[in-house]
Write a structure and sequence with these properties.
single chain, alpha+beta, Porin, 14 strands, 38% helix, TPR repeat, TPR_rpt, YaiO beta-barrel domain-containing protein, Beta-barrel_YaiO
Length: 432
């Protein structure tokens, strides 16, 4: 009997202790563990919490946890400017615009002068179409950091997006003085230039010499007028040519309407009553894209009509890198038996602004863009052609633009018979 009583007491004691342990664990994890965790986090430095917050944001894209860690860090170090700026960025990336502005406004009232603060706050306003506020912040930031490439570039983008092309150009000019190899600035400068000059008049002279193919030299004179509009540029051009000892006249109209900040079109047409010297009709359409990482691309077609239509399909890809521009272009011309191909590779080195450069080209085949496009008639384009050339463009006082180019061609104008050709082009244009 005593044995069973002892066993019952032992079982009762163990049951009681087990129940007490469960109650203790429940109370600890429900009420005490959070306090213990907070106390443990309090022992972690603000720098360590900042590091954890950056890891959560950049590696895991967990902005909620990054915000919580940043707040904990600021509880320990309320004056830690870098963490406050980072918290404002986190709110911006999380689309919590009012919270981001609240953080940045407090930093502004504290008189913070950090470059990163002005970049973060101005970027917030830029991404939310607050161009006036963004410009004000950037001007203030540049008064403290006049050599900041990031602030100058953001100022150029802000003004470009707000259709303020002259301030955008000034910002790009200042940036390129600081760093002529700034890749993104080079790409943006080209886009700004398309809107900056309201009017441009230009003239050019093209001299063409053949050693075998033709007895007479060619002479082509062109005059053009370009007008920049709110939707893109429009160009009217008149071409006079003396080819095969005969004269001819051609009229062309081209436009570059913009569809968005990324996409724009090329639309061109031409007419001449002097068939053989020029095509009777020509048309062309291309879609251009300003792609990320300073790339640009194009796809389109060109059509020339002499006695029959010649259709060519074109594609190109370009890349800005520091003060260089690289481009690859092809023209594909379907035929009854095969597809004729033309390729050209261009390298352009910018010496100063968007209109000052030295370029080199190498390629094969005939292009519909050249003054020798009338040689495409009667199908000689199937014969082999090699070309290499160089061009130098420079500006004086930004409004006077000069160009000089020379291209050498070695062309198979009859089967197994080749000849040489030399093109020299002089050009001048005035913007106003």
């Amino acid at each position: 009997m005593n044995f069973f009583c002892k066993l019952a007491r032992k079982w009762h004691t163990e049951f009681y202790l087990s129940a007490m342990r469960k109650i203790f664990y429940f109370v600890f994890y429900t009420f005490l563990f959070p306090l213990f965790s907070v106390a443990q986090e309090a022992s972690v430095s603000a720098d360590e919490l900042f590091s954890r917050a950056r890891k959560q944001a950049f590696e895991y894209k967990n902005y909620v946890q990054a915000i919580n860690l940043s707040k904990q860090a600021l509880q320990q170090a309320p004056e830690y400017t870098d963490i406050s700026i980072f918290l404002g960025r986190l709110y911006t990336w999380s689309d919590k615009i009012d919270s981001a502005r609240n953080v940045f406004d407090k930093l502004d009232k504290r008189g913070v002068q950090d470059e990163d603060f002005f970049m973060a706050y101005a970027s917030l306003e830029y991404w939310n179409d607050g161009y006036t506020k963004a410009n004000m912040l950037l001007d203030k930031g540049l008064s403290f950091h006049p050599d900041s490439q990031d602030l100058w570039f953001l100022k150029a983008k802000v003004n470009y997006s707000n259709n303020q092309y002259e301030p955008a150009q000034k910002a790009i000019d200042n940036l390129l003085k600081l760093n002529p190899k700034h890749t993104e600035a080079r790409a943006l400068a080209k886009n700004i230039q398309d809107f900056l000059a309201k009017n441009t008049i230009g003239v050019s002279y093209n001299f063409v010499h053949f050693d075998k193919q033709f007895d007479d030299n060619w002479h082509i004179v062109s005059a053009s007028y370009k007008r920049a509009t709110s939707i893109g540029s429009v160009i009217f051009k008149t071409n006079y040519a003396n080819k095969f000892a005969s004269n001819g006249l051609q009229f062309e109209l081209e436009a570059y309407p913009r569809l968005s900040k990324m996409f724009y079109l090329y639309v061109g047409t031409g007419y001449s009553n002097d068939v053989g010297i020029f095509p009777k009709y020509r048309t062309g359409v291309s879609v251009y894209a300003n792609l990320p990482h300073s790339f640009e691309g194009e796809v389109g077609y060109r059509q020339l009509y002499f006695s029959n239509s010649i259709w060519m399909y074109t594609a190109s890809v370009g890349k800005y890198y520091q003060d260089f521009w690289f481009n690859m272009r092809t023209y594909l011309t379907p035929g009854s038996e095969s597809i004729s191909q033309s390729y050209a590779a261009t390298v352009r080195y910018y010496t100063k602004g968007a209109n000052d450069y030295l370029s080199f080209v190498i390629g094969s085949g005939l292009s519909p863009e050249e003054n020798r496009s009338n040689l495409l008639d009667n199908s000689p384009y199937k014969l082999k052609t090699f070309k290499v050339g160089a061009e130098y463009n420079f500006s004086i006082n930004k409004t006077n633009l000069f160009s000089l180019s020379s291209t050498y061609y070695n062309q198979e104008f009859r089967p197994k018979e080749r000849g040489n050709q030399l093109d020299i082009i002089l050009g001048y244009s005035k913007t106003f």
